[in-house]
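STRUCTURE:
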């Protein structure tokens, strides 16, 4: 932490941006400047600045890109969604064994983000095989998915006490990618049910395990 602080002052890069770059570089398993180049007496800061600039201009969803579509996946015994309407609650979705998936779309996400996450969620091996090992996926077990849009996955709580949601996608864009995600899972043969986009919902579940997994299309976690 101290090295990052001194370096950021030395080369004129904002400390928070520099920290994001260094963390992204570690998460990307070696992309960007090598540790040796960052620590070199001469040229290290130049390599760091040029590497940061190149990463900032990247738009691809490959490792180190700027796409961030997020999913929180919970393995469930049961899950359901009730929509709150003026006349009372209406049950619109109900599944047994499977996944409850909360989807958050970032404002600059694209179709490839939704497809990447759908493929990952469809093949995620978190169900037990006959030996009790986590070797089976939704596709293997025939289990269902309940997909619910949730822009609050992009809550930024770093400043103050009220979350900011400025990184979340607008309604039309978010709904399109949310539906594309669910449609891609359905194409893989998974029974899919939906929440109601933009509605006030009551989501109920029995988390099985508990097993909860976070994914993002940048592969940051």
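SEQUENCE:
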């Amino acid at each position: 932490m101290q090295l990052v602080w001194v370096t950021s002052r030395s080369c004129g890069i904002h400390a928070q941006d520099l920290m994001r770059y260094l963390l992204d570089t570690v998460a990307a398993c070696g992309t960007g400047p090598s540790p040796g180049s960052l620590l070199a007496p001469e040229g290290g800061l130049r390599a760091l600045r040029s590497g940061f600039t190149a990463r900032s201009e990247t738009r691809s969803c490959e490792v180190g890109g700027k796409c961030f579509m997020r999913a929180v996946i919970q393995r469930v015994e049961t899950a359901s969604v009730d929509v709150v309407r003026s006349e009372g609650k209406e049950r619109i979705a109900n599944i047994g064994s499977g996944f409850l998936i909360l989807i958050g779309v970032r404002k600059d996400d694209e179709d490839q983000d939704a497809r990447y996450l759908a493929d990952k969620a469809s093949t995620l091996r978190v169900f037990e095989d006959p030996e009790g090992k986590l070797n089976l996926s939704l596709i293997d077990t025939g289990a269902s998915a309940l997909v619910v849009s949730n822009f609050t996955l992009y809550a930024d709580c770093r400043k103050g006490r009220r979350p900011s949601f400025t990184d979340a996608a607008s309604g039309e864009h978010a709904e399109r990618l949310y539906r594309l995600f669910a449609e891609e899972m359905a194409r893989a043969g998974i029974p899919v049910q939906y929440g109601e986009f933009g509605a006030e919902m009551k989501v109920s579940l029995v988390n099985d395990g508990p097993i909860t997994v976070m994914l993002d299309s940048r592969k940051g976690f």
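REMARK: The first strand starts at residue 70 and ends at 85.
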